[in-house]
Amino acid sequence: MGFWHNRRVVLSGGNGFLGSFVVEKLRESGCREIFAPHSREYDLREKAEALRLYKDGRPDVFIHLAAVVGGIGANRANPGRFFYDNAVMGIHAIEAGRIAGLEKFVCAGTICSYPKFTPIPFREEEFWNGYPEETNAPYGLAKKMLLVQLQAYRQQYGFNGIYLTPVNLYGPQDNFDLESSHVIPALIRKCWEAKDRKATEITAWGTGGATREFLYVQDAAEAIVLAAEKYQKPELVNLGSGEEISIRDLVELVRSLTGYEGAVRWDATKPDGQPRRCLDTSRASTEFGWRARTRLREGLQKTIGWFEQEAGRKSRSSSV
Which among 71, 89, 79 has a CA at the least distance from the CA of 138? Predict the structure, then answer.
């Protein structure tokens, strides 16, 4: 009947951007017992709430996706909150799983945990060879400590926890709030609104020289479900697309795909963040047969199409 038959899954963050796609992929894989409560129902910053979630959800597999996230601006504005909330939610979720005798724990980490000057492509063996980029170090270190906890719990208690490290995600249903979003949704919204207003220019942060790698959200969801089913080892696993692009080239690509023809003003007083990001994803391929399917241009086209549909729907609703 397959791995997921009769297995009950609980997801923290299951109603979020990535979580909604993971739920969809679980259903496609044959899982029928899925519990994905809203964060307001269980505050994982409290240990008693984490224990209550396990009691109510009765999971065989727990997929921990809950996180407080944002772009460079949000990280700089909230370093304390981003550290505490992300660390304590994960610590309590893992400890409650140990107490409950959980079969398997799946933890989503972050590319922000890698050292600032990691050689390209990022290999898992480089994970501990330096300090993260300063603007998102509190968030990256908080998530990094969950790998330490999982490995320590495996060693002492035989706790079966795995740790996955995705690059920046993007896709339909992303957060397009300019105050808290990541670079792709922020650029899409800026270009779309500038085109709509016939603005002569948009502002982009930094110099444009930094590079990034992006992973389409549906590809990430597929990787998480496959790893939950097939991967059993303590070592972290990278999840990425293998496409490295400079922020300057990304801006030009988004401009082209949105049809915005105005100028771009680069605000060099704002930080670039980590100089380069590009992952080696061979371990994911070897261990559980996963490779990203969606090329960046294709994923951007789908994301922009979804955003334009949503913007049109909201415009029609407001005019009624």
Answer: 79
| The two structure tokens encoding residue 178 | 């300019």
Whether the CB-CB separation of 17 and 173 falls below 8 Å is answered with yes
User: Does residue 139 have an active-site annotation?
Assistant: yes
d(CA 72, CA 241): 21
3-state secondary structure of 245: strand
Neighbours of 263 (CB within 10 A): 12
Give me the torsion for CA of 139, 144, 147, 153, rounded to 10°: -80
Alpha helices by DSSP H, 161-295: 183-197, 217-230, 247-258, 282-288
Instruction: Tell me if 210 sits within 8 A of 275, measured CB to CB.
Output: yes
Per-residue confidence (pLDDT) for residue 1, from 0 to 100? 61
Positions of the chain with pLDDT under 50: none
| pLDDT at res. 74 | 81
Catalytic residue among 42, 139, 153, 170: 139
